[in-house]
Amino acid sequence: MSFFKAEHLTMKFGGLMAVSDLSLTVKEGDLIGLIGPNGAGKTTVFNMITGRLLPTEGKIYFRGKDITGTQSHLINAAGIARTFQNIRLFNDLTVLENTMVGYHGHLRSSLWEAIFRLPRYKSEEKKMRTMAREILIEVRLDNVADEKAGTLAYGQQRKLEIARALATNPRVLLLDEPVAGMNPRETGDMMDFINSIREAYGLAIILIEHDMRFVMGLCEHLIVLDHGVTIATGIPAEIQNNPQVIEAYLGEPESA
Amino acid sequence: MSDQHRREWIYKLYTYGVLAGLFTFLLQVQNQADEYQIRILNVSAIFVTLAVSYNLINGVAGQFSLGPNAFMAVGAYTTALLTISPAEKELSFIIEPIIWPISVLHLPFLPSLLIGGVFAALLGFVMAFPVFRVRGDYLAIVTLGFGEVVRVVANNAQSITNGPLGLKGLPEYTNLWWSCGVAVFTVFCVTRLVKSSFGRAMQAIREDEVAAAAMGINVFRHKMLAFVVHAFFAGLAGGLMAHLITTISPTLFSFFLTFNLLVIIVIGGLGSMTGSIIAAVIITYAGEWLRAVEEPMAIGPVNIPGIPGMRMVVFSIMLILVMIFARQGLMGRREFSWEWFCGFLKIGKRRG
Amino acid sequence: MVYGIIRLINFAHGDILMISTYFAYFGISVYALPWWLSVIMAILLTALLGILIDLGAYRPVRHAPRISALITAIGVSFLLENLGIVVFGGRPRAFYRPDFLNKTYEMLGVHIFSLSIWVPVVTALLLALVFLLLYRTRVGAAMRAVAKDMEMVQLMGIDVNRVISLTFAVGSALAAAGGIMWAMKYPQINPLMGIIPGLKAFVAAVIGGIGNIHGAVLGGLLLGITEILLVAFLPSLAGYRDAFAFILLILILLFKPTGLAGKDTIG
User: Fold this and answer.
1) HSE (CB half, 13 Å, CA atoms) of A209?
2) If pLDDT is split at 50, 70 and 90, which confidence band does C262 have?
3) Does the beta carbon of A120 lie under 8 angstroms from any beta carbon of chain B?
4) C100 and C225 part of one domain
5) Could you say which of C131, C165, C192 is where a domain stops?
6) Does one domain contain both C187 and C199?
7) Which of A147, B121, C86, C104 is the most exposed place for a label (fewest CB within 10 A)?
8) Could you state, in order of their start, the residue ranges of all structural domains in chain B?
9) Is omega for the bond preceding A119 within 30 degrees of 0, making it cis?
10) Does C65 touch chain A (CB under 8 A)?
């Protein structure tokens, strides 16, 4: 039984072929990069995996189950979490609350128990709060725990999105452009951070990014998309020298 | 006991203190105030219940419903049909006789009220399925539609609701203890809900549905939850209202009622329970006070004729102005907390 | 049409209809103008009213969250209704119906009221004019462009505010025409008369798929015809007539959440 497998995923919007025949296998603990020029269909792949879009063709299997077209919250419960390209935080909630929301899917208590603060709910709430604080300490956001998410600096917001996703207790983490708009120092920090959570939480990670130094320095395996078509897969060293890839980007990717 | 723990205990004491104060206040009012004052107080309390529960679906969960009148109607009619004696029912239903088993049912107030709330909640449950297939403006129109449908059904189902004639002769059960009691209970339940993980989930849905789903929240289920809870309390409020004014008819539960509620939660602040409570009381009193504008009055030798409908003109203008200039209303999404209050007072003390 | 451009359900639309009938009424009864002149003036005045409402109430909230705009619209609607009650009084007034509309013709053994012929004819004419405006004029093209992408259009030098004002003017003028025809049919007016037509108009637009003019026409026809059929064939349910529009709406949205001709949106 494979860990995660996507087979022949295709997404068609009317006449537009956003993703064409993409196949991808992920083992536990892998760190895979999904790269390609803008509009190549990368986020569409994420949307298909997380149940936001129903693939026109193809299947997705996670830990033996067919999760194609399942509802987003169920896919998350199964163990796949994501961040968003455009940062979709719960702006009016605090940093701590944003993170705690990640645990709600695992709540066993009923509404009744919550309203009357029965013992099981009280202990669950306490556990949620503690675990959320621990994650915030790891991402170094614990000092702003009570600030509204919408007021955070850009880099902090990106980290919060990851913290929130981690709170859902995933086995696979999909990161959509985690260092977009960051300076080299922040990018370096994020690289270290991703490596550390990968180890600490035993995660498999698929990430979408344009920053080549980041991608080459982090990922073990790359998939290159252009106009929805997979034009190359392999280890970073191979991809760097692949003429088709170079052509797709219209220029040389920066070497690590 | 740790510092934090002790502070929480003190805050709890403050809350009980306020409740005790409310209790004694009500005792005084019952004995001393005149009927008119009591009546307004009752109506205020009922609107607190309504506003707080309406704010749950509109402000906290962010699902803009325009149909709370439907739940009030169901609650009111259900409760009334259970509390009116069979003899009185026979007298009222002159066009078409009332159907069995309603004709023989006769229950005391509390069970009737609760059943009214439950029926309203059931309607909310059933409505959730079509209603939450859409969002935003469509949701508003669909819920408005349901409100109208319920009103039209009440107007036509002669053998159940007595149609346009309505129901009269309801026993006047509602007094300050009932209305304020239910209000306190509603505020308790809804505030506890909002502060819990479920409340966070609902707010997450309000902020960003897609992200909420991606974080494992069953969006439909939580929308429905907010809706059903709102329906239950609105149903209770309907039952209370019915037994305050002792006559109900379909025209009572029109969009006009929804509009009043809307003005209240907007002015109070969409998403703030504290705001809804304050606004419910203020608006009810303001409405009464403005009624004076509608009556003819004499200032010295000048006789100013009453202007009926002026009250609503004022409320409409208020609503528009709030939307243009102060969208957050009184409290925005902030809530009252003892911590804030103490801080507020202490700062004053420090200066002095 | 208004919705397509500024994404606002103009709750006050039905009430604008109501005001237009009062304009006409005053023209005819109070100022003793010939009926056709009153009608034209009423339509123009109503168009002006539409522009004023947009300027005063909707423009300030145009960039606010959608709910704020919706609430504002509800406020405007109630304001118009209650102002109507305050200024005109709640009692219905009789509306004038010109003679040529009072005749009855006999065709194929069925009596047809003159008015019943003129209303569809005028409606079709007005719709044709709207389509002409939208699809054959530069202004219309501007309206459609704003409907598609307001920001982009601004970059191309089109004055969005003017386009929106114009849309309100046209929309209100249409409402006025409809309102006056309605008033001639019934033939009376009162300050709350706009509520039901207004709501049914939304329902029709939603059924057809909001933002989509063809859909709105389709929705309007569908609603009108099925309502009549309901009353004709199930007279015992006639009291439910007004609820019927909503029931139809709920059913359609159950199966096609974007309306019959609506566009699918993702997430």
Assistant:
1) 27
2) very low
3) no
4) no
5) C192
6) no
7) C104
8) 33-255
9) no
10) no
Neighbors of chain A by Cβ distance (3+ pairs < 8 Å)? B, C
> C153 falls in which pLDDT band (50, 70, 90)?
confident
Q: How many CB atoms lie within 10 A of CB B306?
A: 13
Same domain, C136 and C34: yes
Q: Which residues of A180-215 are buried (b: 16+ CB within 10 A; e: fewer)?
A: bebeeeebebbbebbeebbeeeebbbbbbbbbbbbb
Q: How many Å lie between the alpha carbon of A52 and the closest alpha carbon of chain C? A: 7
- Tell me the shortest Cα–Cα distance from C65 to chain A, in angstroms: 14
* Residues contacting residue A16 through CB under 8 Å, at least 6 positions apart: none
Whether C168 and C62 share a structural domain: yes
Label residue C25 by pLDDT band (50, 70, 90).
confident
The last residue of one of the domains, among A155, A188, A207, is: A155
> Residue A158's closest CA among A194, A211, A132, A131?
A194
- Domain containing residue C266: 194-267
Q: What does the block give as tokens for B317? A: 């203008």
Q: Note the ipTM here.
A: 0.91
Question: Under DSSP, is residue B272 helix (H, G, I), strand (E, B) or coil?
Answer: coil
B270 in contact with C at a CB cutoff of 8 Å? yes
CA distance A161 to C82: 49
- Residue C244 and residue C155 in one domain: no
Using the Cβ of B215 and the Cβ atoms of chain C, whether some distance falls under 8 Å is answered with no
Among A131, A155, A179, give the residue marking a domain's end.
A155
- Among chain B residues, CA nearest to A170: B215
Q: Please write the tens of the pLDDT for every residue from B177-221.
A: 999 999 999 999 999 999 999 999 999 999 999 999 999 999 999
Q: Give the ranges where chain B is alpha helix by DSSP (H).
A: 3-32, 35-55, 68-83, 86-92, 109-131, 136-156, 158-161, 176-195, 197-207, 209-214, 219-245, 255-268, 273-294, 310-325, 338-351
Let me know how long chain C is.
267
Q: Determine the Cα–Cα distance for residues A33 and A223; give it in Å rounded to an integer.
A: 6
Which chain A residues touch B201 with a CB distance below 8 Å?
Answer: 101, 104
Last residue of a domain, one of C151, C175, C192: C192
**Chain B nearest C-alpha distance from A69 (Å):** 13
What is the pTM (predicted TM-score) of this model?
0.89
Question: Judged by CB atoms within 8 Å, which residues 248-267 of C form the interface with A?
Answer: 266-267
Do both C210 and C259 map to the same domain?
A: yes
Give me the mean pLDDT over the C176-192 stretch.
82
Are residue A52 and residue A178 in the same domain, yes or no? yes
pLDDT, one tens digit per residue, over C113-123 is 777 777 778 88
Q: For chain A, say whether C67 makes contact (Cβ under 8 Å).
A: no
- The alpha carbon of residue C70 is apart from the nearest alpha carbon of chain A, in Å, by 21
Could you say which of C60, C202, C240 has the minimum Cβ distance to residue B324? C60
Burial B131-141 (b: 16+ CB within 10 A, else e): bbbbbebbbbb
Residues C149 and C250 occupy one common structural domain: no
Name the helix (H) or strand (E) containing C223.
Answer: helix C213-233
Domain hosting A216: range is 4-79+170-249
Tell me: do C145 and C235 sit in the same domain.
no
Nearest CB partner across the interface for B313, out of C65, C71, C83? C83
Could you tell me if A94 and A35 are in contact, meaning their C-beta atoms sit under 8 angstroms apart? no
- Look at chain A and report how many structural domains it folds into: 2
Segment A73-122, tens digit of pLDDT: 999 999 999 999 999 999 999 999 999 999 999 999 999 999 999 999 99
Parallel, antiparallel or unpaired: strands B297-299 and B302-304: antiparallel
The answer as to whether A84 is a domain residue is no
Residue B302's alpha-carbon distances to B281, B297, B298, C44, C86, in angstroms, are 33, 9, 6, 39, 20
Q: Which ranges of B247-327 does DSSP label H, i.e. alpha helix? A: 255-268, 273-294, 310-325
List the CATH number of the domain containing A216: 3.40.50.300
Domains identified in chain C, total number? 2
Q: Which residue of chain A has the CA closest to C267?
A: A52
